[in-house]
Amino acid sequence: MNDLIFNLNKQQLKEIIKDSVREEVTELINKPEPKEKLLTAVQAADFFSISRPTLWDWTRKKYLKSYHISGKTFYKESECMEALQAGLSKQKGGKGKEGSNA
């Protein structure tokens, strides 16, 4: 068994607890914001139910912003959601995966 027994007075115990809580709170405050979820081009096209060429077209026309990391293209999920809520859909010229106009 790894039980340790310490003889601490009330003030010493209080200080240990305060220090521990202070460390945890400081760590939480300084913790970086959660990273933005990135979608691959395939995931972004699926998100909008469009083809990849349409996704590239929308990117070229600045409807969406792409991010290039290590030679790969990504889209921020939050920006895709905003674009969808703002009305970006097949109506911007996407033909969907089936190739039919919507």
Topology of helices and strands:
Blueprint: H1 10-30, E1 38-40, H2 41-48, H3 52-60, E2 67-69, E3 72-76, H4 77-85
Antiparallel strand pairs: 1-3, 2-3
At a glance:
By secondary structure, the chain is mostly helical.
Description:
By secondary structure, the protein is mostly helical. It has a domain at 38-92: Multidrug-efflux Transporter Regulator, Chain: A, Domain 2, CATH 1.10.1660. The chain has four helices and three strands; from the N terminus they run αβααββα. The protein is rod-shaped, with a radius of gyration of 25 Å. The chain starts with 9 loop residues before the first helix and ends in a 17-residue tail after the last helix.
Poorly predicted tracts of residues: 94-102
Q: CATH fold name of the domain at 38-92, please?
A: Multidrug-efflux Transporter Regulator, Chain: A, Domain 2
What is the correct CATH architecture of the domain at 38-92? Answer: Orthogonal Bundle
Could you give the order of the helices and strands?
A: HEHHEEH
Q: What is the C-level CATH assignment of the domain at 38-92?
A: Mainly Alpha
Roughly how many Å is the radius of gyration? Answer: 25 Å
- Please give the largest β-sheet: 3 strands, antiparallel
Instruction: Specify the oligomeric state.
Output: single chain
Average pLDDT rating:
84
Per DSSP, the total helix count is: 4
Spatial strand sequence of the major β-sheet: 1-3-2
